[in-house]
């Protein structure tokens, strides 16, 4: 079967949407913080703490993270604290100044909330990381619900996630919008039947735009258009 043709437009028919589900890292927040932490800061600090060369730590750390990529463990700070024998949250706080909200996110969230639609933050982030970022950005007030995959026991890209979410919070997939920067997650959402999907072209503001595959994508949230106030 031929792959679905991708639309280049992120524009949305808001009259077809009653539930809005949004990812956090890379979608609402700049992924630069996470990329810098895992790829730059953590290897340096691990090397310092263990008294070894950074060049020795990097390939070892990449292999360890790749082994659980896409699983709930990949996103779990408790898992990495045990595996690496280091306080991951404390190390994250050393670069907390890099946490930032993507441009035009907050006006979009304001408009969606005022429109009367149900707005949910749906993230794979571990609860400790989620709490840290919500405290830094203060975007939590825009959501009716904040859901982390750790509360449901499986990552968004894993089988079963969307059924568990729907059991906890009933929603109609046919009238739901979901925005995420992870293509594996978007494909799982599509397979579940979520009708309105958008990828993010530049999750990390310091890196080039990414290929969003078969999904229509946005450069920023203005491209979705803001819904009228309900």
Automatic annotation (TrEMBL):
GO biological process: DNA repair
GO CC aspect terms: cytosol
SUPFAM superfamilies attached to this UniProt entry: HAD-like
Domain of life: Bacteria
One Pfam assignment: Hydrolase
InterPro entries per record: HAD-like_hydrolase_sf (IPR050155), HAD-like_sf (IPR036412), HAD-SF_hydro_IA (IPR006439), HAD_sf (IPR023214)
UniProt GO MF annotations: phosphoglycolate phosphatase activity
Name used for this protein in its record: Haloacid dehalogenase
UniProt organism field: Thioalkalivibrio denitrificans
């Amino acid at each position: 079967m031929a792959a679905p043709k991708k639309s280049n437009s992120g524009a949305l028919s808001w009259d077809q949407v009653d539930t809005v589900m949004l990812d956090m890292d890379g979608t609402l927040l700049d992924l630069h913080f996470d990329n810098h932490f895992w790829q730059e800061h953590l290897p340096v600090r691990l090397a310092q703490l263990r008294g070894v060369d950074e060049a020795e730590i990097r390939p070892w750390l990449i292999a360890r993270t790749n082994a659980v990529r896409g699983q709930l463990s990949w996103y779990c700070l408790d898992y990495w604290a045990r595996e690496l024998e280091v306080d991951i949250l404390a190390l994250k706080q050393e670069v907390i100044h890099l946490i930032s909200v993507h441009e035009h996110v907050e006006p979009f969230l304001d408009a969606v909330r005022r429109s009367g639609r149900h707005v949910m933050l749906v993230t794979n982030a571990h609860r400790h990381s989620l709490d840290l970022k919500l405290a830094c950005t203060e975007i939590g007030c825009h959501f009716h619900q904040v859901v982390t995959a750790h509360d449901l026991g499986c990552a968004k890209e894993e089988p079963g996630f969307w059924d568990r979410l729907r059991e906890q919070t009933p929603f109609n997939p046919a009238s739901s919008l979901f925005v995420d920067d992870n293509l594996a997650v978007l494909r799982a959402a599509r397979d579940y039947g979520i009708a309105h999907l958008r990828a993010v072209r530049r999750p990390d503001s310091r890196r080039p735009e990414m290929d969003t595959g078969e999904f229509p994508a946005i450069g920023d949230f203005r491209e979705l258009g803001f819904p009228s106030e309900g």
